[in-house]
Automatic annotation (TrEMBL):
<feature type="transmembrane region" description="Helical">
    <location>
        <begin position="302"/>
        <end position="320"/>
    </location>
</feature>
<dbReference type="InterPro" id="IPR002208">
    <property type="entry name" value="SecY/SEC61-alpha"/>
</dbReference>
<dbReference type="InterPro" id="IPR026593">
    <property type="entry name" value="SecY"/>
</dbReference>
<keyword id="KW-0811">Translocation</keyword>
<feature type="transmembrane region" description="Helical">
    <location>
        <begin position="385"/>
        <end position="404"/>
    </location>
</feature>
<feature type="transmembrane region" description="Helical">
    <location>
        <begin position="174"/>
        <end position="193"/>
    </location>
</feature>
<dbReference type="GO" id="GO:0065002">
    <property type="term" value="P:intracellular protein transmembrane transport"/>
</dbReference>
<keyword id="KW-0813">Transport</keyword>
<feature type="transmembrane region" description="Helical">
    <location>
        <begin position="142"/>
        <end position="162"/>
    </location>
</feature>
<dbReference type="InterPro" id="IPR030659">
    <property type="entry name" value="SecY_CS"/>
</dbReference>
<keyword id="KW-0812">Transmembrane</keyword>
<dbReference type="GO" id="GO:0005886">
    <property type="term" value="C:plasma membrane"/>
</dbReference>
<feature type="transmembrane region" description="Helical">
    <location>
        <begin position="20"/>
        <end position="44"/>
    </location>
</feature>
<keyword id="KW-0653">Protein transport</keyword>
<comment type="subunit">
    <text>Component of the Sec protein translocase complex. Heterotrimer consisting of SecY, SecE and SecG subunits. The heterotrimers can form oligomers, although 1 heterotrimer is thought to be able to translocate proteins. Interacts with the ribosome. Interacts with SecDF, and other proteins may be involved. Interacts with SecA.</text>
</comment>
<keyword id="KW-0472">Membrane</keyword>
<protein>
    <recommendedName>
        <fullName>Protein translocase subunit SecY</fullName>
    </recommendedName>
</protein>
Length: 422
């Protein structure tokens, strides 16, 4: 991996992308340290420590929420907006056609996503300011409250723009990178917390060692599942064009076990955090209900939350796989180029075969991801340790890191071909 980084640094375009991504990450981290004026952060920190949903939300913002900094809303509104638009695309034919209509269609879809994110940011900013942190505001002046709300909305939109810029001019998916940085920024704090707990006797040393071993095993298994591929053999018929013989080659279709990558995990976490935003507008009873039945700290809420998380991971795995891996298009391209799967007739039989294989692989991958997410989550819950790098967060961190590695390699391969052609 170090040799790949060293090699990529020598390529001007790749180096520019790396530097651009690092610059955006630096701006994000600076934004998470600039507090919103007129807010007592000590009160918010106590709220976060006593509410598991707020703690999860704080993890994705890289600690920005507990310190109530500019980026306290995080990238959440944009992620939730992406979920809504993607789900609507499946239900509405006009949006589906727009998605397939090339660059112009993609721009319009992005515009709809941004507008939806703005609406969600407004709702979330108002709910958080007037609900969660109202007691931490040092003034109840309407102008001051409005200023806080506008500041949160504007900062969230800037963060959305930064994510788009990273995707376009940097490395990796911008939204995933921002969440990735937010999670790993909490790791030093978590390590210090565990060390202090061991020193004070709150946690036994052997339990801390078991926790570390489980984390390492989880990271290894997540890496394995993200890299696992099933190769479907493809054979191309020989054909004569002029006086030359073409075709007759053997190839394969790579079907990744985790075809959808890290997005199902991010979407599941974002969707589970959404009820909390709605509860902010519905009074203390609604907030208590959500904290009781959608909380990872209480016994009832823990089981409900984790069960819903598993179901959502499976759902979004299938959902994203159908978008990213279109068996109809693959079968049609194979047929047009004289390709076929040995023992399977071209056309509908090929589509049915690929769909059946893809469905089985996706189910296995989704269940594996869900189990991997649950092992550290259950360990942390029953050991009563507050860790950011647990379950869902491990999947996100490892998934994003592997995606960065793959994209870096693809850029290097592409530049190598360009150098050869020149």
């Amino acid at each position: 991996m170090l040799s790949k980084i060293k090699q990529s640094w020598k390529v001007k375009d790749v180096r520019r992308r790396i530097l651009y991504t690092l610059m955006m990450i630096l701006i994000f981290r600076i934004g998470t340290t600039i507090p919103v004026p007129g807010v007592d952060t000590s009160i918010i920190s106590k709220l976060v420590s006593g509410n598991s949903l707020l703690a999860l939300y704080n993890m994705f913002t890289g600690g920005a929420f507990s310190n109530f900094t500019l980026f306290a809303l995080g990238i959440g509104p944009y992620i939730t907006a992406s979920i809504i638009i993607q789900l609507l695309t499946v239900g509405f034919e006009s949006l589906k056609e727009l998605q397939k209509s090339g660059e112009e269609g993609r721009k319009k879809m992005n515009m709809y996503t941004r507008y939806t994110a703005l609406v969600l940011a407004i709702i979330q900013a108002v709910g958080i300011t007037l609900g969660v942190v109202k007691g931490a505001l040092k003034s109840d002046n309407i102008f001051f409250i409005t200023t806080v709300i506008i500041t949160l909305i504007a900062a969230s939109m800037i963060l959305m723009w930064m994510g788009d810029r990273i995707t376009e001019k940097g490395l990796g998916n911008g939204s995933s990178i921002i969440i990735f940085v937010g999670i790993i920024s909490r790791i030093p704090t978590d390590i210090i917390s565990v060390v202090n707990s061991v020193q004070s006797g709150t946690i036994k040393l052997w339990l801390a060692i078991i926790l570390a071993v489980i984390m390492l095993i989880t990271i290894t298994l997540v890496t394995f599942i993200n890299e696992a591929v099933r190769k479907i053999p493809v054979q191309y018929a020989k054909k004569v064009v002029g006086r030359k013989l073409y075709g007759g080659q053997n190839s394969h279709i790579p079907m990744k076990v985790n075809q959808s990558g890290v997005m199902p995990i991010i979407f599941a976490s974002s969707l589970l955090a959404f009820p909390q935003t709605i509860a902010l507008f519905m009074g203390e009873n609604a907030q208590n209900f959500v904290s009781t039945y959608l909380s990872t700290s209480g016994d009832i809420g823990f089981w409900i939350y984790r069960s819903l998380e598993v179901l959502l991971i499976v759902f979004f795995s299938y959902f994203y796989t159908t978008i990213s891996f279109n068996v109809d298009d693959i079968a049609e391209n194979m047929k047009n180029n004289g390709g076929f799967i040995p023992g399977i007739r071209p056309g509908r039989p090929t589509i049915d075969y690929l769909s059946r294989i893809l469905s089985r692989i996706t189910l296995a991958g989704a269940l594996f991801l869900a189990v991997i997410a649950m092992i550290p989550a259950f360990t942390v819950h029953f050991m009563s340790v507050n860790m950011s790098l647990a379950g869902t967060s491990i999947l996100i961190v490892v998934g994003v890191a592997l995606e960065l590695k793959r994209q870096l390699e693809s850029h290097l391969v592409m530049r190598s071909y360009q150098g050869f052609l020149k």
